[in-house]
């Protein structure tokens, strides 16, 4: 079978949904509890999951392989417990499951297929009106050098002053668009938004260390202080085969340490899924499960 070439594949999602009931009860309970009431750190790590037979790591995310679909079905069966799996057209053609592998041509870019540069802290698709609520990363093949880094607003908040927090709650920040979403169009800064929203005691956060700027000097300073607090109070996970990390994208930013790929078929290989909790919100900018929002001039 050609793995991970499931562009807008409703049949795959339905098949995975039917398998959700076959997941171990303890695993289902933990995931459903996390979805309903995310833990304070906004991250759930599950270990020892079966990923099936693995051929060599592909050289590109969309390269066909001889891999079976065991890991795709596992990933989507867990995703179904949290909401609705979706793809984004610019992300690997809108696949509902994407292969995340090191690619030579993007080794030093701020993208998921980079390797030799630190992937800076970011909310997944911070600029997107229909960004995912949950991000799932399933490790098929690990690399001991590569640390997936996560930082929660709940861990950073106690280290910020009241004036900085108040600034972050105001619409004084703008976010550019990831280049992968532009298809050659000119980048644009989005409308001013707040970095923090909701309750002051347990806010939601949208943050991108690379793409976000303040609209004034005080806002820029607040953004810098938030970035420093997140960096100072983050956690790192070296993912191994069979590990699945679930990230609450409203609460946690993530990144990755640099690592040195070999490009010999044994490199790090993750599979990624996005979940939204309100599929209807993207109705006018979606084909099936593929969100098609257009950005740029």
UniProtKB/TrEMBL annotation:
GO BP term, example: antibiotic biosynthetic process
Residues in coiled coil: none
Pfam families in UniProt: TauD (PF02668)
Molecular function (Gene Ontology), one example: oxidoreductase activity
Keyword Metal-binding attached: yes
Keyword vocabulary terms for this entry: Antibiotic biosynthesis, Iron, Metal-binding, Oxidoreductase
InterPro entries reported for this sequence: AlphaKG_dependent_hydroxylases, Clavaminate_syn-like, TauD-like_sf, TauD/TfdA-like
Domain TauD/TfdA-like as annotated: residue spans: 43-273
Protein name: Unannotated protein
């Amino acid at each position: 079978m050609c793995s991970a070439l499931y562009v807008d594949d409703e049949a795959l999602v339905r098949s995975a949904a039917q398998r959700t009931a076959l997941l171990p009860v303890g695993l289902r309970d933990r995931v459903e509890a996390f979805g309903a009431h995310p833990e304070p750190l906004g991250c759930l790590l599950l270990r020892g999951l079966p990923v099936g037979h693995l051929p060599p790591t592909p050289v590109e995310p969309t390269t066909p392989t001889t891999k079976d679909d065991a890991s795709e079905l596992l990933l989507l069966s867990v995703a179904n417990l949290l909401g609705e799996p979706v793809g984004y057209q610019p992300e690997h053609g809108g696949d509902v499951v994407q292969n995340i592998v090191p690619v030579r041509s993007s080794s030093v870019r701020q993208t998921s297929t980079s390797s030799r540069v630190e992937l800076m802290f970011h909310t997944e698709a911070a600029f997107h009106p229909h960004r995912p609520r949950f991000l799932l990363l399933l490790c098929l093949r690990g690399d001991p050098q590569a640390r997936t880094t996560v930082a929660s607003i709940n861990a950073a908040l106690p280290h910020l002053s009241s004036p900085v927090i108040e600034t972050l709650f105001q619409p004084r920040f703008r976010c550019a668009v990831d280049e992968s979403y532009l298809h050659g169009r000119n980048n644009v800064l989005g409308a001013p938004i707040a970095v923090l929203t909701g309750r002051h005691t347990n806010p939601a956060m949208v943050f991108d260390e690379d793409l976000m700027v303040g609209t004034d000097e005080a806002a820029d300073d607040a953004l810098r202080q938030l970035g420093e607090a997140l960096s100072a109070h983050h956690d790192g996970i070296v993912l191994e085969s069979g590990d699945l990390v679930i990230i609450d994208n409203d609460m946690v930013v993530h990144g990755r340490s640099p690592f040195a790929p070999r490009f010999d078929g044994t490199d790090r290989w993750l599979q990624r899924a996005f979940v939204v909790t309100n599929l209807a919100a993207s109705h006018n900018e979606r084909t099936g499960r593929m969100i098609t929002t257009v950005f740029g001039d």
